[in-house]
Design a protein that fits this description.
The complex is a heterodimer of chains A (99) and B (452). With 99 residues, chain A is an alpha+beta fold. Chain A has three helices and four strands. In chain A, 34% of the residues lie in helices and 34% in strands. Chain A has a four-stranded antiparallel beta sheet. In chain B, the strands form two sheets. In chain B, strands 1, 2, 3, 4, 5, 6, 7, 8, 9, 10 and 13 form an eleven-stranded mixed beta sheet that branches. Chain B has a two-stranded antiparallel ribbon with strand order 11-12. In chain B, strand 9, helix 14 and strand 10 (398-405) form a beta-alpha-beta unit. Chains A and B meet through strand 1, strand 2, strand 3, helix 2 and strand 4 of A and helix 1, helix 3 and helix 9 of B.
Chain lengths: 99, 452
C-alpha cells in the first residue's frame, strides 16, 4: 500500500458490499481475503427487503497484496456476483465520524 | 468502534450524493525564476513546475484509490506572472502563458492558475504588459487561467483597471469567438482576492505563501441537499444545525486528503477551502439546496435569506472540521456549472440583478454568466464595478467571470462541456453606464466605522 510505516491499527480497511442478496457473497469475499492473508476483524450485515448491506472490517497488516490490488479483486468478484464491493481505508470513516 | 450506520452514511455520500474532493491544488512559487532573458525565465518556470508537481497527479490518484473518495481535479497555481516576468524586457507576455500550458500538460493537470496581476491601486510595467497579453494568452493556451484583482477594502477600486478589464473581456471573447467566447471562462476579475484559493479560474500562489503548498477544495452540494430534504418540516434552527453537521463531515474529508497529499508530496499543507462547489451533474446543485428549503425556484423572493443561512451554516461546520480554513470558503453560485441555476434562469426566475444581491451573502460573485455578444465594454466594466463595490464595502471577496458570447443574443445558449457546463444568455440593462466608467481614477477606500 503506502510506503509509510503504520501499526496494525493503521492498516485496517472497510469493505462494503451492496446489492441483491444471493448465495456465495460472504464466501466470495472471505475467500479473496483469506487467499491474501487478510484477517477479518468484524462482520456486520443487514437485509433491507431483498437487498444486502454488509460491512467487513479487515486487517491488512500481513496482506500479500496492496490496497489497489485488493480493490481490483473485490470489484471483479462483485461483477461476477452482480453486486457492488468496494474497499476503503479506515481513516476515511474515522476522520469523518470521530474527532 | 464505528457503527454500521456511520459506515453506510459515508458510503452513501460518495456513491449516491456525489461527495468528492473537487481539487487538490499545488501552489508553487516562481519568484526565483525571474531574470532579464525571457527564454531563460521560461525555461526556469517550466523546470520548476515540472519538478515540483511531477508526482501530483500520481499521488492524487493513489489517495483516491485508497480512500475511495473521487478527487476530481489536480491543479497548479503559481506566483502571479506579472511579478515573475516583470524583469524581462518584452511587451508580450503570451509566451509565458504558453510555457505554463506546456508545463501543465507535461505533469497532466487540467488547469494552471496564475496568469495574474494585482492592480487594486495601480499598474506597474509588468502588470500592464500582463493584462494586455490576457486575450492572446487565453486564446492560444488550453489550461492557463487568468485573474486580475482590481479592488480591495483598504485601497478602494481602481476604476482604470475596471474599465480596462471590460475591454480585455471583450477582446478575449472576440479571440475565442469560434468557441462561444471560452477564453472568458478562464478569466476572473476580483476584489479582495485570496492568496490561497485552490479553485480555478481565480487561483494563484500569493506572495505571502511558502515555496510550495497543497490546498484542497471540497465539494458536496448533493450531500447537503439530501440533508435539507430530510429536514422538510424542521424550523430554521434545526435546519442550520443539520447543514452544519453535514458541512463538518464533508470538510473532514478535505482535511484528510489534504494532509495525506501534502505529506506524500513532501510539501506543507496549506488550507481547506470549504466552498460548496456545484457541478452540472444532476443533484450536485446549490440552487437545488435553496429550492429544497422551500423556494419554488432559485431567484424568487427569499433566495438571499436562504443562501445566507446556507453559507453561514457551511462555514460554521467547516471551520470546526479543519485546522486551517482559507481560500474562498463560501457557497459558489455559478450559472453555467449548476443545473438548478440554469433552470432558474431559463424559467425566468433568476435575473442578473438577483444574482448580484445573492453575492452579498456568499462567495464568490457573478460567476460563469453569459450575456449578449453586443454588450459593450463599458457595460461589462460597470457590472464589474458594481460587483467589486459589494466586496469592498463588505470586506469580502467578490468576483466577476462573465462571457459576452460572440454573436449570441438573449435566449441563445453557450456550450462549454465538462465542468464548465452550458449557460443561457442573460439580458443586461440597456441604459448606458459609459460616462460613469470613463471617468477614470480610483474610488476611495471606504470608512470602516459608521457601518450602516
Amino acid at each position: 500500500m503506502s510506503n509509510q510505516k503504520q501499526d496494525a491499527k493503521g492498516n485496517r480497511v472497510i469493505i462494503s458490499v451492496l446489492g441483491p442478496d444471493r448465495v456465495g457473497i460472504i464466501a466470495g469475499v472471505a475467500n479473496i481475503l483469506s487467499e491474501n492473508n487478510i484477517n477479518i476483524l468484524d462482520i456486520s450485515q443487514t437485509l433491507i427487503q431483498e437487498y444486502l448491506a454488509m460491512v467487513l472490517i479487515a486487517d491488512m497488516e500481513k496482506s500479500k497484496i496492496n490496497m489497489g490490488e485488493l480493490k481490483d479483486k473485490l470489484a471483479a468478484k462483485g461483477r461476477e456476483l452482480g453486486i457492488k464491493i468496494d474497499a476503503q481505508h479506515e481513516n476515511v470513516f474515522n476522520f469523518m465520524h470521530r474527532l | 468502534m464505528l457503527t454500521m450506520a456511520e459506515i453506510m452514511e459515508t458510503i452513501k455520500m460518495v456513491q449516491e450524493e456525489n461527495l468528492d474532493i473537487r481539487t487538490i491544488t499545488m501552489g508553487i512559487s516562481l519568484r526565483d525564476c525571474s531574470g532579464p532573458d525571457p527564454a531563460a525565465v521560461r525555461r526556469k518556470i517550466y523546470d520548476k513546475i515540472t519538478s515540483l508537481a511531477g508526482n501530483l497527479v500520481r499521488v492524487g490518484e493513489e489517495i483516491e484509490r485508497e480512500y475511495g473518495i473521487p478527487i476530481v481535479n489536480k491543479r497548479i497555481s503559481v506566483t502571479p506572472i506579472s511579478l515573475v516576468a516583470e524583469s524581462c524586457d518584452v511587451d508580450d507576455f503570451t509566451g509565458f502563458a504558453r510555457t505554463m500550458d506546456e508545463a501543465a500538460a507535461a505533469v497532466g493537470v487540467n488547469f494552471i492558475g496564475g496568469f495574474s496581476a494585482l492592480v487594486h491601486k495601480g499598474f506597474t510595467k509588468g502588470d500592464l504588459r500582463l493584462v494586455k497579453s490576457i486575450p492572446a494568452a487565453l486564446a492560444t493556451t488550453h489550461r492557463v487561467c487568468s485573474s486580475v484583482n482590481v479592488a480591495t477594502s483598504k485601497a478602494g477600486i481602481n476604476m482604470d483597471a475596471v474599465y480596462m478589464m471590460g475591454k480585455i473581456i471583450k477582446d478575449t471573447a472576440g479571440l475565442t469567438a469560434d468557441r462561444d467566447g471560452l477564453g472568458c471562462a478562464k478569466l476572473v476579475v476580483f476584489s479582495n482576492v485570496p492568496e490561497d484559493n485552490p479553485f480555478m479560474a481565480g487561483s494563484f500562489h500569493g506572495i505571502g505563501e511558502p515555496e510550495s503548498v497543497i490546498n484542497v477544495g471540497v465539494s458536496g452540494p448533493g450531500v447537503v441537499k439530501n440533508m435539507v430534504e430530510k429536514c422538510k418540516d424542521a424550523d430554521f434552527g434545526t435546519l442550520a444545525e443539520a447543514i452544519k453537521k453535514t458541512a463538518f463531515k464533508i470538510t473532514r474529508m478535505g482535511e484528510l486528503v489534504g494532509r495525506t497529499a501534502a505529506s506524500r508530496l513532501g510539501v506543507p499543507f496549506g488550507i481547506v477551502d470549504i466552498s460548496l462547489a456545484p457541478t452540472p451533474a444532476v443533484g450536485d446543485s446549490v440552487a437545488e439546496i435553496l429550492e429544497h428549503m422551500g423556494l419554488e425556484r432559485c431567484g424568487t423572493h427569499g433566495t438571499t435569506a436562504a443562501l445566507a443561512l446556507l453559507n453561514d451554516a457551511v462555514k460554521k461546520g467547516g471551520a470546526m472540521a479543519s485546522s486551517y480554513v482559507g481560500g474562498l470558503s463560501g457557497a459558489f453560485i455559478p450559472v453555467s456549472e449548476d443545473a438548478g441555476m440554469i433552470r432558474a434562469v431559463e424559467t425566468g426566475a433568476l435575473s442578473l440583478d438577483k444574482l448580484e444581491a445573492m453575492t452579498c451573502v456568499c462567495s464568490v460573485g457573478l460567476d460563469m454568466i453569459a450575456v449578449p455578444g453586443d454588450t459593450s465594454a463599458e457595460t461589462i466594466a460597470a457590472i464589474i464595478a458594481d460587483e467589486v463595490a459589494i466586496g469592498v464595502i463588505n470586506h469580502k471577496t467578490t468576483a466577476v467571470r462573465i462571457i459576452p458570447a460572440p454573436g449570441k443574443k438573449v435566449g441563445d445558449r453557450v456550450e462549454y462541456g465538462g465542468l464548465l457546463g452550458h449557460a443561457p444568455v442573460m439580458p443586461v440593462h440597456g441604459f448606458s453606464s459609459s460616462i460613469f466608467v470613463r471617468r477614470g481614477g480610483r474610488i476611495p477606500a471606504p470608512v470602516s466605522s459608521l457601518t450602516n
